[in-house]
Predict the structure of Tagatose 6-phosphate kinase.
Amino acid sequence: MILTVTLNTALDITYRVPALRPHTSHRVSEVTERPGGKGVNVARVLAALGHEVTVTGFAGGTTGRVLRDRLAEVPGVLDALVPVSGTTRRTVAVVDERSGGTTQLNEPGPVIGHAEWSAFQEAYEDLLASASAVALCGSLPPGVPVGAYASLARTARAAGVPVLLDTSGAALRRGVAGRPDVLKPNAEELAELTGSHEPLRATQDARRRGAGTVVASLGPQGVLAVTPEGRWRAVPPAHLHGNPTGAGDSLVAGLLAGLVERLPWPDRLTRAVALSAATVLSPVAGEFDRPAYEELLGRVAVTAEANAA
Amino acid sequence: MILTVTLNTALDITYRVPALRPHTSHRVSEVTERPGGKGVNVARVLAALGHEVTVTGFAGGTTGRVLRDRLAEVPGVLDALVPVSGTTRRTVAVVDERSGGTTQLNEPGPVIGHAEWSAFQEAYEDLLASASAVALCGSLPPGVPVGAYASLARTARAAGVPVLLDTSGAALRRGVAGRPDVLKPNAEELAELTGSHEPLRATQDARRRGAGTVVASLGPQGVLAVTPEGRWRAVPPAHLHGNPTGAGDSLVAGLLAGLVERLPWPDRLTRAVALSAATVLSPVAGEFDRPAYEELLGRVAVTAEANAA
């Protein structure tokens, strides 16, 4: 199975309102709730592609209970979340029906105790024994050491399980030192990590910091991959209109699926970019549009990049 | 005991953010949760004043469970909520730390089934047997007939229990026909009910529609009461700076406390206005500042109103 780690899981709540006006009162016309956090989203996409997936990380309190109840309703995803005494966070996305704009409110995560972090590390090591790949996804809740991802990446490498890291800020800066097999930053994370806004230079720099492969997601410009086997750009067919929520998580799911199926890099990138684009096109935030995905698979342009100076 | 009815209970969530900017992402710096809905707020104030209070209405789903857990932590309040299959709503108040402004997001309530409404009416009638007064508070959830408050007021009157009504819109328009002993509209509700923006005229008109007494809450201008024993204005000492959230619910609590203690109207109004003002002054939304309350009791100005033409 593929293992995804979400240390800062969330219950993602979406409110639809006609238009958000600060300092006024709104009747919410529609409420939706789903289990969230990057690794949970990645798992949902992998399961939809037919992969066996296990989700681990932390869950606690009333919101944690709701999260696990909802997760149990997702076919193909196994729940191996570790209980904590704190309360899992909620995120509230307020979607304006008129403009389509989204206002995001993210609660802080629960504080993780020392014993809880140790319990997680043990559970993680046990789960690695039957994992074909592992993805370390998203932010760290308070109480988890900032070097957590470096340590989890090393444990995975010691167990012979390829590891993908998708995070930001200090967790990314420290995590890359754990030498993950694949790093998946977006343009902003890449610039923050390397100080460079030039994608090829920054991607190469990120790789030199410890990652085996860096796949930089550049939004409408697709992805740029610097791998031990070569460099490629993969670009969706045209500018896509839709909701980019979850597009990065679908990209990660595509990269993991291609990794465990041992596809050559150009095929992995095609799949990942098609999934990501099909997520932008889906009417439901974070889900992918399957017919669009099938169709996009034949329309992603992959080109080899020449060696830079 | 005093009975308060909240058909559309809520879990009130407050998020503090530096400043709410539509279509951007925010980290919430502080999350607070408490059981809410007007009748629940009224009950909390009554209990703090030393009265025995029972809360009824509906609660269901995960949010209903959290609401009841939180309610159990409030000393002096008895939970007699009726379970429903739907999920109790949440409200989210987003408070700007910089400006102090509040943006309110209210989920719709659960749809109440016919059998659930019948079960409530039975429970309500049983509770009236030991009630010294009842308050019917707030909006009606979907599925409850718009004439619900008129019917509940009639049941209370038949049981010899004085009844106060505090609601708005169609529920108010229809509810007043049930001849509640006390009606507590604010200026906006009064204008909506009567079509008049002139407080004395509108208050008299509201009384003619069926209420025994009308106590109109006019914000910083205090209250105007038209009762069978006379007319009074009661005004707090000065313009109060603070958060008006819950000031109306504290006013209702003061009126109920004065009613069951059979205080003369001027004393009831003094108490109600002092409580309401002490709620505006409290640093915690919806709580009252007890020292301020004690001090304000001596500083509310009550004046008899001459008969209007």
